[in-house]
Amino acid sequence: MSKRDTIDKWSLFYWCLQFFLVKPIHDFFYREIHVHDAQKIPKHEPVILAPNHQNALMDALAFVAGLNKYQTVFLARADVFKQKLVIKILTFIKILPVYRARDGRSSLQKNDEIFDITRS
């Protein structure tokens, strides 16, 4: 199964993580969540949602908890994708590598492939 197949495929496991782990944890820390203008998010087009990273992981989890109709794909810094097992796990839970200039200018071209994977 390619990365594209893994990312595109609706996942029961992802849904279970979303509703039975992420949402309860998020709701424990944040009693209310308000999503404004969710109807403006295109259903069949790629969208970039960019949390400001002030709360690190909680910002990303807010998207998972608040936009629970979607199976969100996340981007993470590429240097964590070094071991095969880690790559399989992260790809399975819809996290893809993104390369930065500090990873080497030539590695930035790899982002084109990653962005192609996330496009419908």
Automatic annotation (TrEMBL):
One of its GO terms (molecular function) is glycerone-phosphate O-acyltransferase activity. GO terms for biological process: phospholipid biosynthetic process. Residues 33-109 form the Phospholipid/glycerol acyltransferase domain. This is Phospholipid/glycerol acyltransferase domain-containing protein.
